[in-house]
Amino acid sequence: RGGIATFNERLARQFISECKEVDIRTFSLQYPALFFPGKTQYTDNPPPGDLRIKREINTINPINWMRMGSRLKKEKTDILLIRYWTPFLAPCLGTVARIVRSNKYTVVISLVDNAIPHEKHFGDRLLTKYFMNSIDGAAVLSDTVQRDVVDLRNDIPVSFAHHPLFDNYGKKVSREEAMNSLKLDPDFSYLLFFGFIRDYKGLDILLKAFSHPDLKSRKLKLLVAGEFYENESLYRKLAVDSGRVDDVVFFNRFIDDEEVKLFFSAADLVVQPYKTASQSGVTQIAYHFDKPMLVTNVGGLKETVPHEKCGYVVKPEPEDIARAIIDYFGNNRKDTFTECVMKETLKFSWSKMTD
Questions:
Q1: What distance in Å separates the CA atoms of residue 111 and residue 127, rounded to the nearest whole number?
Q2: Strand runs (DSSP E) across the chain, as ranges?
Q3: CB 294 within 8 A of CB 314
Q4: Residue 6: helix, strand or coil by DSSP?
Q5: Angle at 257 (CA atoms; ends 252, 262), nearest 5 degrees
Q6: What number of CA atoms fall less than 13 Å from residue 92's CA on the CB side?
Q7: Residue 260: what pLDDT?
Q8: What would the pLDDT profile of 13-30 be if each residue is shown by its tens digit?
């Protein structure tokens, strides 16, 4: 489950619409339970009926890697496209890629979300090098990651395309319907922090910004929609310390696909106060639902939101975030920013990605 799985399915559908034959090979075991901070790695939704998906990859079983590689080597697909986002996957995916390429036919391309992980550990670079040395080329979703990949491997083509729109969550609904479904008070305006909660995503910074004196007089609430992968009590305490605990609404759970439209339709401004970033699917969900954004000037986030046109690009500091929120509501920026967002979405087509 999650954004990467959703992206992969949407990308497969785009390739199929362009008359390509596509299989998805996913994980029988992705992360051992010991290493996974969430409640479950699996979706409750039924498998999509229009895609061929096989659960075959076990990330911690070297015998599985060799068998998987041998099967794909014999299949002789034209392209093997491997998604890479964490060094934990490097031994498995790098071994599979090497075996497949030994057929001297299949071209191995990696779609690289992160070459340098947000949360760093000893050996990350060595593991990522192992994977990068197994591929023929890379596709990236931000200039920041492109530079990181080239730094690791400067002898292969590295192609950049913007993260396409996440247009597979349905159409936006009326504000009234969203308010009713989420049991929210329509007399308030709403900020939205969306996605699972980890330290690098900066929810702590946003909660501190939300306590700004110039925001306390406004009828404004903060929606936090996503499962905690950190100690929840730390963030609950920050909400209490802000003096606005009743104005912070936590939805501490994985947000199912059919619910996404409700949160974005309810939001007046989507806030991504990240401390580090490569790029973010949340930005592209916001674009799909015509929502202005506040992002921090880290990684690829600043590349996709024109400052003071579609939203704000600010430092990951509480004061800077608060000042942008104050400007947005104080100067009624919503209509002009939304108009810019709707024009900007034309950049983010799936056909540009597949090209």
A1: 17
A2: 24-29, 53-58, 79-84, 107-112, 137-140, 158-160, 189-194, 220-225, 248-251, 269-272, 293-296, 311-314
A3: yes
A4: helix
A5: 70
A6: 22
A7: 92
A8: 999 999 999 999 999 988
Strand order in the sheet with 137-140: 79-84, 107-112, 137-140, 158-160
On whether the CB atoms of residues 212 and 318 are closer than 8 A, the answer is: yes
Length of the chain: 355
> Which of 23, 148, 156, 34 has its CA nearest to residue 88?
34
SS3 202: coil
Cα separation, 295 vs 269, in Å, equals: 10
Cβ contacts of 169 within 8 Å, gap of 6 or more: 257, 258, 260, 261, 264, 285, 288, 289
Which structure tokens are listed for 217?
Answer: 């007089």
Q: Check if the beta carbon of residue 84 is closer than 8 Å to that of residue 118.
A: no
| Closest to 337 in 3D by CA, of 314, 310, 312, 313 | 310
Buried b (16+ CB within 10 A) or exposed e, 151-172: ebbeebebeebbbbbbbebeeb
- Render 252-285 in DSSP notation, one character per residue: -S---HHHHHHHHHH-SEEEE--SS-S--HHHHH
The CA dihedral of 121, 31, 298, 216, to the nearest 10 degrees, is: -110
Three-class DSSP category at 7: helix
Output the CA angle 118-230-228, nearest 5 degrees: 105
Q: Which residues pair with 107 in a beta bridge?
A: 79
Q: How confident is the model at residue 205 (pLDDT cuts 50, 70, 90)?
A: very high
Residue 293 near residue 269, CB atoms below 8 Å = yes
How much is the pTM? 0.69
Task: Express each pLDDT in 309-352 by its tens digit.
Answer: 999 999 999 999 999 999 999 999 999 999 999 998 888 889 98
DSSP symbols for 310-351: TEEEE-SSHHHHHHHHHHHHHTT-HHHHHHHHHHHGGG--HH
Distance between CA atoms of residues 119 and 110, nearest Å: 21
